[in-house]
Write a structure and sequence with these properties.
single chain, mainly alpha
């Protein structure tokens, strides 16, 4: 269908076809193809002088470039896009199945700012996404904003807020017959319960949510994230084998040698699962923490880098290695300019105070 209309880009059919293709490739986790469709939308928006259409193009490019190749570049493009639709009138597209593109611009920007080491800016973006979704009164957009805001709070280790977002998501999904979001909401609620200390209850809800999600025709793009969260809950429960099975699936889906920005977080969870378990030396958690730190540094993912540095400092090293780890953490902590009330930065301060 795209080839039939591509030679006449003034036809109104071209943009919806491009946007649908972009979503299709996104859902299939074919990120390079989705980014290329985004560039075609950007070019079309330029030719038609359509800043609202440009939001869709920038979203596809920014998300896919940021998550799989260039965290800073993707974040900067989304920042510029958010500034643009905040400063100029925005003409919303007709929404049928997807969400208003401004919502994923904001939530993805929140994720990127968190990973880059700007927790306060990340929180502002996630909260703004929820506020915008409420204002436009579009249930799918609201569900999308609640889930991704909840996931940011999961990263920030704020389980009570995760619980609040999850319950609101389940309500929205139930009121508007959104079964996929209902399953995802149940999963998120399980993660919150595990984080609040109700580990068995949390694991039960996580398994129920992921089971419901698996029964539907669901996009593979969410699967690494779901397996990652499930593995963390298994780690809390001391279920090493189950957790390793989940995290190894997540790592395999992304590619162990990939530049996906979530890979360092996967390595951290694998290290946590191995920590304290009776495993051979080849499964030393310190190896995975070091890999997480080095990969995060290469990706400019300062928050993952900090989390890895804290874990390395806690390892039972010889005095010289311990001093080296401490120096790494001290240097890294000094680069942060915000987010000092978050759990991770508080833990860094405590570690440096010992």
């Amino acid at each position: 269908a795209l080839e039939l209309i591509k030679d006449s880009d003034d036809r109104p059919q071209l943009f919806p076809v491009l946007r649908s293709l972009g979503s299709f490739y996104n859902f299939r986790a074919e990120f390079d193809k989705a980014a290329e469709i985004g560039r075609e939308i950007q070019a079309l928006a330029d030719r038609q002088n359509d800043p609202s259409m440009q939001v869709d193009g920038n979203l596809l490019v920014g998300v896919n470039v940021g998550f799989v190749r260039d965290l800073r570049g993707g974040s900067e493009l989304l920042d510029a896009t958010i500034e643009s639709f905040g400063a100029h009138p925005y003409r919303a597209p007709r929404l049928r199945l997807g969400s208003d593109p401004r919502i994923p611009c904001l939530t993805t920007s929140a994720f990127f700012h968190w990973l880059l080491g700007f927790p306060d800016q990340a929180l502002e973006r996630a909260d703004r996404a929820v506020q915008l979704a409420v204002a436009i009164q579009h249930p799918t957009s609201h569900a999308y904003a609640l889930f991704h805001s909840g996931f940011l709070h999961l990263w920030r280790r704020e389980p009570a807020l995760v619980q609040s977002r999850a319950l609101a998501l389940i309500d929205i999904a139930g009121d508007h017959d959104l079964p996929i979001w209902s399953a995802i909401g149940t999963f998120l609620l399980g993660a919150a319960s595990a984080g609040l200390g109700n580990v068995e209850e949390g694991l039960s809800a996580l398994r129920h949510g992921i089971g419901r999600y698996q029964e539907m025709k669901t996009p593979p793009v969410f699967w690494p994230m779901l397996h990652h969260v499930l593995a963390e809950a298994h780690a809390r429960a001391g279920q090493t084998d189950e957790g390793l099975a989940s995290i190894d699936q997540a790592i395999a889906m992304l590619g162990e040698d990939s530049r996906a920005v979530l890979i360092p977080e996967m390595f951290l969870v694998k290290g946590d699962l191995l920590s304290g378990s009776n495993r051979p030396a080849a499964a030393d958690p310190g190896v995975w923490y070091r890999r997480a730190l080095e990969r995060a540094a290469a990706l400019a993912a300062r928050m993952s880098q900090l989390r890895a540095a804290i874990r390395l400092c806690r390892m039972p090293w010889d005095p010289d290695t311990a001093r080296s780890c401490r120096a790494e953490l001290e240097t890294l902590y000094a680069t942060f300019t915000e987010g000092f009330t978050t759990v991770d930065l508080a833990e860094a301060r405590e570690q440096l105070a010992t």
